[in-house]
Design brief:
The complex is a heterodimer of chains A (493) and B (484). Chain A has 22 helices and two strands. With 493 residues, chain A is mainly alpha-helical. Chain B contains 20 helices and two strands.
Chain lengths: 493, 484
């Protein structure tokens, strides 16, 4: 009976539970809030499962819902998913559960507000992925800033306020320019905010270039692409573990998603015009940021830079305009969602025990936490793109796609397999192996059942996607083919 | 003019004004007989008068436009809606200010009567259809407000603010009158329809009319507080007792909007191209100056004053579009702006107590630890002023920006959008202070239920208008269509 409202449920169930958590929240006894949040996040995923089971592998928008919202501007509550957005919605719902489980004994200050922020954000993110109306998308996209600002600023590390404000203003600048281009498109389409109408409307060359740049500002900041990436390491380092997980696993993907949903189909000619520019920025991110990651002394910063480098693959894949690259980019987004979340959770496990993120404060952790060490090494391998893990699939496809276009681009991109392995494994070596470094490490306890659960779930997903990517690619492929066909047609005439 | 026979029915469109005037006179007499400790009777009667008249106005919404008193007075959907909004705004101002006024012994018959006379002036402005009624309403409003600001006799800051307000206000009235007299000279009439007719049919002396227009726009910009005629805003907002700031800062904006609509959009419609350029300059200057200077403020009232300047710039953006789309967008912007202003100054009133003004930004430190709800209220208001969804402020900005874009002001739209990123910084600072800082001093929330519930209502209205803005937008479209 809820068949027609699956997407609405994935949006509003977490938000409703988030508000409920706020209402029943009690700082002295956080348990009811915690359990409500857990139920809410589990239910949030459960209501989204029909998206996976009922999805038809075609390019059309599915599970659509359409209710007029603001008649005056012809804005509709128009939802729908295709092969790009559907997996991202499920990824987000899953990660929300991870965040709720991960916070359990760790966050003790203002627990209900913390959980409510994540649940509400989860709903908003699903809304952004599911919106087919530009204003609806914008509302979700911007509203997301509010809980994230609070998550970083209230529960983060010592320099949290700086990081939160930087995050907020960077993102706002980009998205307001996007709003201006929406308004332009609204008048070009004679009064429609439908994203699919934007896809069809013919646009002149200058207009396309300007719109491309405005939207580029918005999504490049989110991805983040070099050189507008500088907010990310700050935000990650200062955010609580849950905040880092959602930032890395989900909010960065909104940037990638934005390129696919807005830039490529709305401004195909400008996308071709700027392809070299995009590829260059992506390769700089892959190579240069990979090198930057190598010298980090802080584990979270290292993973943050590694995220930027991996997201470089995503944008590279999108702007070489072939099926391998684009499919690889999307697979890489999903895989990075799993792996980066797992890496941040691993660092969180260590941080909760020792209260340090510095690599130098660790050494010989394997002696005291063998189970944890096994997971950490496994995820590190996945992060450096070991075949058999999901990290390999996306990177390999992007390199395959790139090599058809330009050998040297592919060569530069492939260096990540070396750099990625270098920075990740070197960090693991210094943290996990060797002799027990100090008393803090000597006092470490291995992972408990709660931590085991979330690490194991992510490990299974990383392996599943690495060994059997076909279910994922089958879902994505028809949409990609359609998108490539669309991007191949000029809008100028 | 010999057809002007007196008949009671010609007065029907002005019934709300007449009722309010009678109520004010009654109230003044009742107040004389009250002892000091019974002053709350005056307060409640004032609220009753305001709400009663507002209800009366609401009942008239939807009636056809009527021009009466030989073309002096008009009653249309726009005037009905704006009058109801004005009266309710004044009522909300009094509700929010009650505890503050009581603690400072300002809850007097004088304050209430001046507020009511101000409201009456605004109603006349809103319904004016003739330069003379426009000016009479404006002066009735302004004189009551000069007195309201200076009412706190023992405060040097308040009397200084009152003085500045008076001098600059008189100057702007002078400019306005001078401009109106020029237009009279050019067109030969004071009545709006005839002025419009004369201009559109080329019967007016173009040079003289444009000359007058410059002064009229300057006078209006003064009243609105748009840069470069904004100088009085920060000082008056800061110096006046906070409820008096609201009396000056909230409802009069509604009346001034109506004033602009009648004067520029109706009367001087034929000169749209001329005043569009002037408003464009005002809008750009206000948005830039308001947003940039607000960053440097440590006093919340001054910060909100500069934020007002930038918001008036956005309002001018909508009016400058010069289309029904633009006017109705500006009207929506105006109503949401008034709600946000009431809320944000209401927060200052809530935290103030006897001997403590709570008007420094640092006074809001750690509010979330004291009261989650009121911290959330302020969060909603600040993000709404920023223009972030899902709050009313976002749709207000969207509306005026799309209207300005439609009329070909794309460059100004992009400029305004970039400036609002700067604006975001200082609103964000308030949120940061409330949620991320430890409390500096003791925060007490012992305002009366009147203040607390009104404040809650303002936050909820801001949120609800951010989720379902449709009905109010449609009402604004109806109002503007009827008025044009």
């Amino acid at each position: 009976m809820f068949q027609g409202y699956v997407l609405s449920l994935t949006i509003w169930v977490p938000i409703a539970f988030g508000i409920a958590v706020l209402v029943i929240g009690n700082d002295k006894n956080p348990m009811p809030a915690r359990w409500t949040a857990l139920v809410g996040s589990l239910l949030g995923l459960a209501v989204g499962l029909p998206l996976w089971t009922g999805f038809q592998p075609v390019a059309d928008m599915q599970f659509t819902e359409m209710i007029p919202w603001i008649a005056r501007f012809n804005v509709n509550y128009h939802l729908g998913v295709d092969g790009i957005s559907m997996p991202l919605i499920l990824l987000n719902s899953l990660m929300t559960i991870m965040v709720v489980v991960a916070h359990w004994e760790v966050i003790t200050d203002k627990v209900s507000q913390y959980l409510a922020a994540f649940l509400i954000m989860s709903g908003l993110i699903n809304g952004a992925f599911a919106s087919l109306d530009a204003i609806l998308f914008y509302v979700f996209f911007e509203a997301m800033l509010i809980p994230m600002f609070l998550i970083i600023g209230v529960w983060g590390g010592p320099n949290r306020v700086y990081a939160a404000v930087k995050f907020f203003l960077y993102t706002l600048l980009g998205s307001l320019l996007m709003l201006a281009s929406f308004i332009y498109l609204y008048w070009q389409t004679n009064g429609s905010f439908e994203i699919l109408d934007f896809h069809r409307v013919p646009l002149g060359e200058t207009a396309q270039k300007l719109i491309f740049l405005a939207m580029f500002m918005s999504f490049a900041v989110k991805v983040p692409m070099w050189p507008v990436h500088t907010w990310l390491p700050d935000a990650h380092v200062e955010a609580p573990t849950g905040g880092s997980v959602i930032l890395a696993a989900i909010t960065l993907k909104i940037g990638g998603y934005g390129f696919l949903r807005f830039n490529l189909p709305i401004t195909p000619d400008a996308s071709h015009y700027f392809d070299l520019f995009m590829v260059t920025l992506s390769l700089v991110a892959v190579v240069y940021i990979g090198l930057v990651a190598l010298v980090q002394a802080d584990m979270k910063k290292l993973i943050a830079y590694s995220s930027i480098s991996h997201m470089g693959f995503v944008t590279l894949g999108f702007f070489i305009f072939n099926a391998n690259g684009m499919l690889g980019g999307i697979v890489q987004m999903l895989s990075h969602g799993f792996i980066s979340a797992a890496m941040f959770l691993c660092v969180g496990v260590l941080y909760d025990r020792v209260h340090s993120r510095m690599i130098a404060d660790y050494g010989g952790v394997a002696n005291k936490m063998p189970v944890f060490a096994a997971f950490f090494v496994f995820f590190a391998m996945a992060n450096s793109g070991l075949p058999g893990t999901s990290g390999f699939v996306g990177e390999f496809m992007v390199i395959m796609g790139t090599i058809k276009v330009n050998f040297w681009w592919a060569f530069l991109a492939a260096t990540t397999l070396i750099f990625g392995a270098a920075y990740t494994l070197w960090m693991v070596k210094r943290v996990v192996y060797g002799a027990v470094a100090n008393d803090h490490v000597a006092a470490l306890q291995d992972v408990n059942k709660r931590e085991l659960v979330f690490l194991a779930v992510l490990a299974v997903l990383v392996l599943w996607m690495g060994l059997q990517p076909k279910p994922f690619t089958d879902v994505i492929n028809p949409t990609i083919q359609e998108l490539l066909r669309h991007v191949g047609q000029s809008k100028l005439g | 003019m010999n057809t002007a026979t007196f008949s009671l029915s010609t007065m029907a469109p002005a019934v709300p004004e007449i009722v309010l005037a009678l109520l004010i006179f009654t109230l003044m007499i009742v107040d004389l007989t009250l002892r000091d400790e019974d002053r709350h009777v005056t307060y409640w009667l004032t609220l009753l008068s305001l709400v009663g008249t507002a209800v009366l106005c609401c009942f008239t919404i939807g009636r056809a436009s009527v021009v009466t008193f030989q073309g002096m007075f008009v009653s249309d959907v726009m005037s009905q809606v704006l009058k109801a909004a004005t009266l309710l705004t004044v009522a909300a101002t009094l509700l929010l200010g009650r505890s503050y006024l009581e603690a400072r012994r300002l809850l007097s018959g004088e304050f209430m009567c001046l507020a009511l006379f101000g409201a009456l002036g605004m109603m006349i402005m809103i319904s004016a259809h003739h330069f003379l009624t426009l000016y009479l309403g404006l002066e009735l409003m302004a004189l009551s407000q000069y007195a309201t600001v200076s009412l706190q006799r023992d405060s040097v800051r308040a009397t200084e603010a009152g003085m500045k307000y008076f001098v600059l206000g008189a100057l702007s009235s002078g400019l306005l009158l001078y401009g109106l007299s020029m237009i009279y000279g050019a067109t030969g009439s004071l009545e709006l329809t005839r002025v419009a007719y004369a201009i559109e049919h080329g019967q007016a002396q173009q040079a003289l009319a444009v000359f007058g227009l410059v002064f009229v726009v300057a006078g209006v910009a003064f009243k609105l507080g748009a840069a470069p005629f904004h100088m009085w805003i920060p000082d008056v907002y800061h110096g006046a007792a906070t409820p008096a700031t609201l009396i000056v800062g909230a409802a009069p904006k509604i009346a001034t909007f109506a004033f602009i609509m009648r004067l520029l959009a109706n009367g001087l419609q034929g000169m749209t191209a001329d005043w569009q350029q002037m408003l464009a300059v005002l809008a750009v200057a206000s948005i830039a100056l308001g947003n940039v200077v607000a960053i440097a403020q440590t006093n919340l009232k001054r910060m909100l004053a500069y934020s007002t300047i930038s918001h008036m710039g956005f309002l001018a953006l909508g009016i400058m579009a010069g289309t029904d789309n633009g006017y109705s967008s500006a009207m929506f912007y105006l109503i949401t702006y008034v709600v946000m202003t009431l809320g944000s100054f209401g927060m200052i009133l809530l935290l103030a107590r006897s001997g403590f003004e709570a008007e420094e930004i640092s006074d809001f430190k750690g509010l979330n630890q004291k009261s989650k709800w009121y911290a959330f209220v302020m969060l909603v208001l600040m993000f709404s002023l920023t223009g972030l969804p899902p709050t009313a402020g976002f749709f207000a900005k969207l509306a005026v920006l799309q209207a300005a874009w439609e009329s070909g002001f794309g460059g100004i739209v992009v400029f305004a959008v970039l400036m609002s990123v700067i604006g975001a910084f200082y609103y964000l600072r308030i949120v940061k202070v409330m949620y991320m800082d430890a409390p500096a001093g003791e925060i007490t929330i012992d305002g009366r239920a009147d203040t607390r519930w009104t404040l809650t209502a303002m936050a909820l209205i801001t949120l609800i208008l951010g989720i379902v803005p449709g009905p109010l937008m449609d009402l604004c479209v109806r109002a503007i269509t009827a008025a044009m």
